[in-house]
Amino acid sequence: MNELRFKTEQEKFWAGDFGNKYVDRNKRSEKVISNIALFCEILRNTEKIESVIEFGANIGLNLIALQHIIPEAKLHGIEINKKAYEILEEWGGAQAYHQSVIDYKSENKFDFVFTKGLLIHINPDQLSQVYASINNASKKYVCMIEYYNPNPVEVAYRKQRNKLFKRDFAGEMLERYCDLDLVSYGFVYHRDVHFSQDDLTWFLLKK
């Protein structure tokens, strides 16, 4: 496996020790149950998903949930952290790619392209490139599950600066790409007594 080269401090941050600790903190199986509930709500607004790719898959907890919902779909995941990538690859339920989403390029198209807690950690100067890769990879749906803010803002993340950025990611995609339309959106509260998420807002776009 080739060592990755990074363009931004954020890539180095998540590929390194902090990213490794994130893997250790987020191995809880109950997350899969909450993810199943979330993706059932999102996918009820879609038609026939046969291929999926996640930008920033980590150890695959989102893809595992999707495998339960749409077991016939071919799953793929891009992950920058080597430790997370190896766990994802060992699981074997998805084709895993060890690389930065900033560098991802492929001629393959997927029915459902999504991010969950990824875009908030991308260097804002690189967002346009990531948006382009997401749009290019999709032949049907794009889903963004992120922290929302109407205007771009940087927020301290576990006492770290320049590591978390909130904004209207879906709105920016809609403004950039006229072939995308908003299908649906929703919010999942961290106090949800059954299937909590980390105050995430999701947007489903369709080509």
Description:
With 207 residues, this protein is of the alpha/beta class. The chain has a single domain (9-206), classed as 3-Layer(aba) Sandwich (Rossmann fold). Helices cover 33% and strands 24% of the residues. The protein has 7 helices and 9 strands. Helix 3 crosses helix 4 (61-69). The chain is globular and about 40 Å long. 35% of the residues are buried.
Provide key terms for this protein.
alpha/beta, globular, 207 residues, Rossmann fold
What is the ordering of alpha helices and beta strands?
Answer: HHHEHEHEEHEEEHEE
Globally, the shape reads globular
Radius of gyration: 16 Å
Number of domains: 1
Largest sheet features = 7 strands, mixed
Detail the poorly predicted runs: none
CATH superfamily: Vaccinia Virus protein VP39
Distance between the termini: 35 Å
Quote the average pLDDT: 95
Percent helix range = 25-40%
Number of helical segments?
7
Per CATH, the class reads Alpha Beta
Q: What is the CATH-assigned architecture?
A: 3-Layer(aba) Sandwich
| Order of strands across the main sheet | 3-2-1-4-5-9-8
Proportion of residues in extended strands: 15-25%
What fold name stands as the CATH topology? Answer: Rossmann fold
Secondary structure class reads alpha/beta
**Counted beta strands:** 9
Secondary structure elements and pairings:
Elements (H helix, E strand, L loop, with lengths): L8 H7 L1 H9 L4 H14 L7 E5 L5 H9 L4 E6 L2 H10 L3 E4 L11 E7 L10 H11 E9 L6 E2 L10 E2 L2 H8 L4 E8 L11 E7 L1
Parallel strand pairs: 1-2, 1-4, 2-3, 4-5
Antiparallel strand pairs: 5-9, 6-7, 8-9
